[in-house]
Amino acid sequence: MSRRVSWLGCVSAVLLVCALVFTMLPGVAAQETTGGLKGYVKDKSGASVPKAEVELTSDALIVPKKAVADNAGYFYFSVLPPGNYTLTVSASGFRTYKQVGIPLTVGALPTIDINMEIGSVAETIEVTGRAPIVDVTTSKVAVTITPATARTPTSSRAWTQVTLNKVESNKTLSSNSSRKFK
Predict the structure, then answer these.
(1) Residues 171 and 99 in one domain
(2) For 104-144, how does the pLDDT look when each residue is reduced to its tens digit (9 = 90+)?
(3) Which of 31, 65, 105, 181 is least surrounded, with the fewest CB atoms within 10 Å of its CB?
(4) How far apart are CA 148 and CA 162, in angstroms?
(5) What CA–CA distance (Å, rounded) separates 23 from 12?
(6) Domain count, the chain
(7) Is 116 contained in some domain?
(8) What is the CATH classification number for the domain harbouring 91?
(9) Is residue 70 within 8 Å of residue 50, measured between CB atoms?
């Protein structure tokens, strides 16, 4: 009988440990520290450019990351630290494409569509002014808290109170600006 009780105690302990481990896994997976970048390489007519060489450089990287576009012209970079990136694409029979200043934030996975122009590889097309890159693959809400906002006193210890104070202070400023002082 005591062996049976001992065995049940061991099984219970193992089940308890497994339950604790599995409850902690979602919290571990939610801690993102990197982002990614993906896109398609196409020519002016919209046809894919297979086997294009794609290089990604940044001060946030130790060495440049390189990829080769597949037959559909698709490329993908993962596990990228946040920062500003430069994307360079080259393919045989096309001018080299270079886009500077691509912002990448934590958890973002923007898609960049690249239109290559026919020419020699020695010619480079550099894109500097572009519409902001929007990550349409995820729906996340993010709030940037500046050091000034963090120093704002709150009525409680809840972190949500900091963002509420920011909204309330903006309302107060805008309502005060419409008043006329004598």
Answers:
(1) no
(2) 998 889 999 999 999 876 667 777 666 566 666 666 666 66
(3) 181
(4) 11
(5) 17
(6) 2
(7) yes
(8) 2.60.40.1120
(9) yes
